[in-house]
């Protein structure tokens, strides 16, 4: 097995309860996003574009669609003999076995996998954020600072800072204090859930944390504070691009709507930083002579005969005659009948919406779960 300077571990096992029906049968990182993608595609593409070719994906809750989507990692050029991508569910070991009890415990349970590659550094990532980031630049920063741990931070509006883990730093970005969702934040440097650790240092702390019965076995709650208390070198890596945690229905809808802004910072049309995914085998889209489309993303296999405005249609969506779709996300293989009206909604996969139905327009985002059959003339606000 080849020795690796760095490998990535992607935490992809969260239940995502705030996404309600969208995660009832689906892990949050596997939720469709932006017309062609699933959420985890952004983290995987970041790794591939950053030259990181050895990745563990730690799964737990409803992993089947996620596992099927990732496969052997071909779309991200991760189908490697030495390295590549590995799916890492909880498993039995000589000392027993449990579900992953926290983010740190998930890494602890896979120490033997990591040690196979004898890495100098380990990159720990969340599988449920939308962003583009060159991790090689962060690694260069980490090494230059001779850090034991480097945490990527993004500046958020100060009035929203209490929703995040906040890093208080000196002028040189060395972290002297970490505050988890402080009621009165001292600054607006929010943790992005992107960490680089020196592996030998982290491994020692993970083993100690496992023995602590009072610990939540979580990076934010336990590992980072323990490292600071031990006076290790922790630095904040400033990130200035687009980043969004899509952990709620509103934030997921907003991030999809950001895709429709031609000037958004994410810029999925950047040929130098592609977002890779599994592309379905579908025919070309068909826009009928009764259709009207404005500021929308419509991908392969869609047939449109109605009006689509400021919306995203995933593969295989059918929009009937005189139907009106506004400010909405319509996921794969959904069929919308004639004269139906859908506004400010997320409609999940395989849904059928009958003729003359009205969905949404309550002010909040309306959500329809997988494979729902909405009868004609229904009203759902």
From TrEMBL:
- Name the InterPro entries on file: ADP-Glc_PPase, ADP_Glu_pyroP_CS, GlgC_bac, GlmU/GlgC-like_hexapep, NTP_transferase_dom, Nucleotide-diphossugar_trans, Trimer_LpxA-like_sf
Q: Enumerate the catalysed reactions.
A: alpha-D-glucose 1-phosphate + ATP + H(+) = ADP-alpha-D-glucose + diphosphate
Any keyword Zinc-finger? no
What region holds the Nucleotidyl transferase domain?
Answer: 8-260
Chain ranges of the Glucose-1-phosphate adenylyltransferase/Bifunctional protein GlmU-like C-terminal hexapeptide domain: 288-361
Q: Does the keyword ATP-binding apply?
A: yes
Q: Name one GO molecular function term.
A: glucose-1-phosphate adenylyltransferase activity
Record EC number = 2.7.7.27
Question: Where is alpha-D-glucose 1-phosphate annotated to bind?
Answer: 100, 165, 180-181, 191
Can you state the subunit structure given in the record?
A: Homotetramer.
- Name by which UniProt lists this protein: Glucose-1-phosphate adenylyltransferase
Source organism per UniProt: Clostridium brassicae
Taxonomic lineage of the native organism: Bacteria, Bacillati, Bacillota, Clostridia, Eubacteriales
């Amino acid at each position: 097995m080849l020795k690796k300077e760095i490998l990535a571990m992607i935490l992809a096992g969260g239940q995502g309860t705030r996404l309600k029906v969208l995660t009832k049968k689906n892990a949050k990182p596997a939720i469709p996003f932006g017309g062609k993608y699933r959420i985890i595609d952004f983290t995987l593409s970041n790794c591939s574009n950053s030259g990181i070719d050895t990745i563990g994906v730690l799964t737990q809750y409803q992993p089947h669609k996620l596992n099927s989507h990732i496969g052997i990692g071909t779309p991200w050029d991760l189908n490697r003999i030495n390295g590549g991508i590995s799916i890492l569910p909880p498993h039995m070991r000589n000392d027993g076995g449990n579900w992953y009890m926290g983010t740190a415990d998930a890494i602890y349970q896979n120490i033997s996998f990591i040690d196979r590659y004898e890495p100098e550094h380990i990159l720990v990532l969340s599988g449920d954020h939308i962003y583009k980031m060159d991790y090689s630049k962060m690694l260069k920063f980490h090494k230059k600072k001779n850090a034991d741990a480097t945490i990527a931070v993004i500046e958020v509006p100060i009035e929203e800072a209490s929703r995040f883990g906040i890093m208080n730093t000196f002028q040189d970005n060395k972290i002297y204090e970490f505050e988890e969702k402080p009621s009165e934040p001292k600054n607006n440097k929010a943790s992005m859930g992107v960490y680089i650790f020196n592996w030998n240092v982290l491994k020692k702390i993970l083993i100690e944390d496992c023995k602590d019965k009072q610990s939540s076995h979580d990076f934010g709650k336990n590992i980072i504070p323990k490292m600071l208390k031990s006076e290790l070198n922790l630095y904040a890596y400033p990130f200035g691009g687009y980043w969004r945690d899509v952990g709620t229905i509103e934030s997921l809808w907003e991030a999809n709507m950001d895709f429709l802004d031609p000037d958004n910072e994410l810029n999925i049309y950047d040929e130098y930083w592609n977002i890779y995914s599994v592309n379905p085998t579908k025919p070309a889209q068909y826009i009928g002579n009764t259709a009207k489309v404005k500021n929308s993303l419509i991908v392969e296999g869609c047939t449109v005969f109605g009006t689509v405005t400021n919306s995203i249609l995933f593969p295989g969506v059918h929009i009937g005659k005189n139907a009106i779709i506004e400010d909405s996300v319509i996921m794969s293989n959904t069929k919308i009948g004639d004269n139906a009206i859908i506004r400010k909604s997320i409609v999940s996969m395989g849904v059928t919406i009958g003729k003359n139905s009205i969905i949404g327009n309550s002010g909040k985002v309306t959500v329809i779960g997988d494979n729902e059959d909405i009868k004609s003339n229904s009203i759902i606000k």
